[in-house]
Amino acid sequence: MSEWSRETIAVTAGRPAPVPDAPLNTPIVPASSFRAGGPMEYAREAAPTSLALEEAIGALETGIATVYASGMAAANAAMDLVPMGGTVVAPSAAYTGVAVRLRELHAIGRIDLRIVEADDTASIASAVIGSHLLWLESPTNPMMQVADLPACITAAHDAGAIVLVDNTFATPILQRPLEMGADIVMHSVTKALSGHSDLLLGALVTRDADRAVAFASRRVLLGAAPSAFDCYLALRGLRTLAIRVARAERNAQYVTQRLAEHPCVDVVRYPGWGTMASIQVHGGKDEADAVCTRVKLWTHATSLGGVESLLERRRRWPLESQTVPESLLRLSFGIEQDVDLWADLDGALRG
Ligand SMILES: *Cc1c(COP(=O)(O)O)cnc(C)c1O
């Protein structure tokens, strides 16, 4: 099974055992409690539908997965394992919820926090000295900075720190941090893994069995258990992950190439791969807001990774990092036809 490619694993992993009359898909099992004597017992500990999703995400990321009620629940479970007063190194423009939560934990004295730029490997290498955890995103949200993951991971390990990579933007189809030596992969399963903007889920993945037990106990003790229905939907969405990512990536490449020469666009931030991009609109904040009201095919909404293309001005959120330009629109590419996405965005930019 481990010989199979990611595209195949996305379709095959987390299925019921292949015995006669077994359903092809793991059923939704709505249960809080299970007859005693087995490994499940109570749904915060484990449940059939979430176990199947964990098997699939674990197979894709090559580790042991624990699923939570949201990406933020997964993030908090990981933060909870930093020792009292331990130092966390994190990027300046990370996912807003993560950045705000780390600042809160710093403000109350729970952790020490060092902020770095994700694409500045040299400063990361010095910041990790004496730290406990290097928290990385690559590409970063919404600045689309790409970290040199192997170099950052090596520097952190040399300094005795562990490395978490939020792999939500890249997905395991395009990037597998555990294979590069990262200790923990985090996902907002809400986004591309499930892919249909109809649920909230999160996951942590590790190859360390003791750490996986600790992650499972965070779910039991912090209480952020996923619902069976959401796990079912996520598994269903996961089956098409590879073709959705390939199609959305092609759309992103098609549109960003044309945006690079657009008279109404000052900056295009796109690393050349992946399904996310950001642009800075000529004319600043008000013009960027106006573009969001003029699009017809694109939807003005937050979030990302769904089959439908979304855009939003990130600074409309009061807690977004001040380093993000006011005129920046984040684009999440869906699986519509490239020429239609281009025509709609081009028209909205020109007014
Ligand atoms: C959405 C997101 C999160 C938070 O996940 P939720 O499922 O919304 O709680 C964390 N990191 C990144 C990169 C995200 O896009």
Strand content: 15-25%
CATH classification class of the largest domain: Alpha Beta
Largest sheet: 7 strands, mixed
Mean pLDDT, as a whole number? 97
- How widely separated are the two ends? 52 Å
Computed Rg: 20 Å
Provide the list of bound ligands, each named once. Answer: pyridoxal-5'-phosphate
Count of alpha/pi helices? 12
Which of globular, elongated, flat, extended, rod-shaped describes the shape?
A: globular
N-to-C order of helices and strands? HHEHEHEHEHEHEEHHHEEHEEEH
Structural class of the secondary elements? Answer: alpha/beta
Number of domains: 2
Work out the number of β strands: 12
The CATH homologous superfamily of the largest domain = Type I PLP-dependent aspartate aminotransferase-like (Major domain)
Stretches where pLDDT is under 50 for at least 5 consecutive residues are: none
How are the strands of the largest sheet arranged? Answer: 1-7-6-5-4-2-3
Secondary-structure arrangement, i.e. CATH architecture of the largest domain: 3-Layer(aba) Sandwich
CATH topology of the largest domain: Aspartate Aminotransferase, domain 2
Helix content: 25-40%
What does this structure look like?
The protein has 351 residues and is α/β, with parallel strands linked by helices. It folds into 2 domains: 6-238, Aspartate Aminotransferase, domain 2 (3-Layer(aba) Sandwich); 241-350, Alpha-Beta Complex (Aspartate Aminotransferase, domain 1), CATH 3.90.1150.10. The protein has 12 helices and 12 strands. Strands 1-7-6-5-4-2-3 form a 7-stranded mixed beta sheet, with helices on both faces. A 5-stranded mixed beta sheet has the order 8-9-12-11-10, covered by helices on one side. The structure holds pyridoxal-5'-phosphate. The site of pyridoxal-5'-phosphate (PLP) has 17 residues, from α3 and α4. Pyridoxal-5'-phosphate is lined by residues 70-72, 95, 97-98, 137, 141, 166, 168-169, 188, 190-191, 200, 202, 304.
